[in-house]
Amino acid sequence: DVEIIDKSIDxxxxxxxxxxPFLLCIPVFGLQPPLxxxxxxxxxxxxxxxxxxxxxxxxxVGRIADAISDxxxxxxxxxxxxxxxxxxxxxxxxxxxxxxxGHSNTAMEGSVRVPCLIRWPGHIAAQLHRCAAVAKRVxxxxxxxxxxxxxxxxxxxxxxxxxxxxxxxxxxxS
Length: 174
Hints:
Layout: H1 2-16, H2 48-70, E1 79-82, H3 109-112, E2 116-119, H4 140-147, H5 161-164
Antiparallel strand pairs: 1-2
């Protein structure tokens, strides 16, 4: 993941100078078995390998957020951090989906109800919102392109931008 993050930051720096919109999707794999973290973070959490991998993810997201700010892109950038497909069912990353049934690589609620954090200064308030909407990573492309008014034809997916900008956290499901 470190190489992916480094190349992504370089891509942002180069493209920020062109003033043209761009989309950067950074798939990180450190939380998928085998778990990954840099030697500097290995053994630093109280939660074992999964805790170390989460610390690495936090560090990587921080580097991305800093690079966005350093490039002067913060006011016009939507930063989306979304979980992939629920917790792993096996060790060492075994987790829980809370009250929902299912885990990674299933179609059950425990796989689709994953964390999603969105930062969009000036459009989404910097506070915690609980939302009833279910949106997987694959739905972020329609949200991003529609929000940027770049769609020339219908785009598959549920438009969740109304939910992310609604302080009430209403559901877009019908």
